[in-house]
Structures are given as structure tokens and as C-alpha cells.
Amino acid sequence: MHLFDMNVWPLLQTHSGERIHFHFEDEVEEHEWEDLVVLWKLIFDIDLIAVDGGVDAIIKNLSGKVLYETYEYDVEIKSVERTFMKEYSESLPDDINPINIKWATINLGKVLREELLMQVL
To answer: What range defines the domain where residue 29 resides?
Structure first.
């Protein structure tokens, strides 16, 4: 499993409103993203909430130090929410992502990269 893959199987088997909480505090490999390097640990809390047909992910209190191009940035983000759906279509809005049904996982890597980049650009 990838660093930012999260198992959502328990939430897919339950009713809407059920929630799981995680705390993430880990270093990120230098080559995780081509254009962004995490210089120190990423730290955040995440609530995963079952919704009809998917899972809402609420990332809270995200902090870390990143390198973009030749500049270092301290990043703090209070809250970010994304929805992950079992039935996914490219025509859905950008803030809706697919659930990997084969492994019952969601990948937060794209979401985290987008949010970190928005803070430094």
C-alpha cells in the first residue's frame, strides 16, 4: 500500500454518518511528488465519514515544511474536505475522487499535493 492510501472498507460496509479518525505524522519520501518536496514531517488529522456511495475525507490541522522550486515554505492548513465515490466519472467536479474498489482504498496523495501547492503559489 502507498503512504497516502487509506483503507475505507469498514466505512463502505456501514451506514452513512459512521466515522473513523486517524492522526498522521510521518516523513514523506523526497520523490513522492515531482514538483514539491516535503522537508520535514507532514502532520494532520483526518476524519473519514461514510456517505451514500462513498466516503468524505476531512483533513484538519495540516502542517509541514515544503520546498517548491528553490523556496522553502512553512505550510498550515486548517481544514480541507474531499469526497471519494465508488462510482466515479470524469464529468464529476474536481473535488470528487474515485475509491479504488479492488482494494477498498482512497489515495490522499493528489489531494495533499494540490492543497500544499495552493499554499505556496
So the answer is: 5-120
